[in-house]
Write a structure and sequence with these properties.
This protein is 67% helix and 16% strand. By secondary structure, it is an alpha+beta fold.
Length: 306
């Protein structure tokens, strides 16, 4: 009886111990897997953060625009208009120039002729570059636009080249000035002074070209051609005006002819002594020729007749 009760208790203890070991082992393995997965998750998170940061940087780099220098353009425009009155349009153009802070650099008006009976005018004006389009729009409202064009020339490379050459020459000038200050002999001083003068002359030439290009870039030129819509032929004058004009022309011609004769008489009076001497020489030569010329012999017929 004792033996039968002891075996079941021993087996129960053994089974409980075995279950405890299994549970302990499973807990330990789960803790180890958790501890091993945590660094892996952290590492994966760091990699993901790093890749995300790189992607954001690359996206920002792609989205950022490339910095480019603004083109340096010399703009010229030409516009032709047909207007009702050329004189009134010229006055309106002057007001537009003042409003746009521009300058009038040329004005040529042509009166009607037989080959072109219309009144025309050509105006050249200079406008700040940023006011070119508004000015053209205002000019187009003054009449009917026959033609309009705009040309542009990029001189950015030339400006950069002139600026670089000017900078190098200025450095050369500074170095030559230092050499001249240290020069001892007169010959060296004169040589350096000549070279310095050449460099300064080149600097002035390049600086003038640079400023000219910058001025052409800053201001645009517009050539405006105006033509009257109606031919303005002059009316034929009436008969009274024609008679009066003819009388004036004839009296003027008579007065000019009389003055011419008077001038001729004055010239003859002034040169009269020379004319008298010349006439006396001719008269004396003829008398001398008559007295010294040989007489012809008389023929028998002339004797019989006598």
């Amino acid at each position: 009886m004792y033996t039968s009760t002891k075996l079941p208790r021993t087996s129960a203890l053994f089974i409980s111990a075995l279950l405890g070991g299994v549970i302990f082992t499973s807990c330990a393995s789960s803790d180890r897997s958790t501890n091993q997965s945590a660094p892996q998750i952290a590492a994966n998170g760091g990699v993901n953060q790093l890749s995300a940061r790189e992607n954001s940087i690359s996206q920002k780099a792609d989205a950022a625009p490339i910095a480019r220098s603004r083109p340096q353009l010399i703009k010229k425009a030409a516009i032709s208009l047909t207007v009702n009155s050329v004189d009134k349009t010229v006055d309106a153009v002057s007001q537009i120039i003042n409003q746009q802070q521009g300058d009038l650099i040329g004005l040529k008006q042509q009166q009607p002729k037989n080959d072109n009976p219309r009144y025309t005018a050509t105006i050249q004006l200079r406008i700040p570059e940023n006011r070119l389009e508004p000015t053209l729009e205002q000019l187009a409202k003054l009449g009917t636009v026959d033609s309009r064009n705009i040309t542009a020339e990029d001189v950015g490379d030339r400006l950069v080249d002139f600026q670089a050459r000017l900078t190098n020459l200025q450095k050369t000038e500074a170095n030559l000035q230092k050499i001249m200050d240290r020069a001892g002999s007169v010959r060296d001083v004169l040589s350096v002074a000549q070279e310095l003068s050449n460099v300064r002359q080149t600097i002035e030439q390049i600086d003038a070209q640079l400023k000219s290009l910058q001025n052409q870039v800053a201001y645009s030129t517009i050539t405006l051609n105006l033509e009257a819509s109606v031919s303005s032929t002059s009316p034929q004058p009436d008969l009274g005006l024609q008679v009066k004009e003819t009388w004036n022309n004839s009296t003027h011609s008579l007065r000019a002819f009389s003055v011419g004769l008077l001038k001729l008489g004055i010239w003859l009076i002034v040169y009269s002594p020379y004319l008298l001497i010349f006439a006396a020489l001719i008269y004396g030569f003829r008398r001398w020729r008559r007295t010294h010329s040989p007489r012809l012999p008389q023929t028998p017929e002339s004797t019989i007749s006598d």
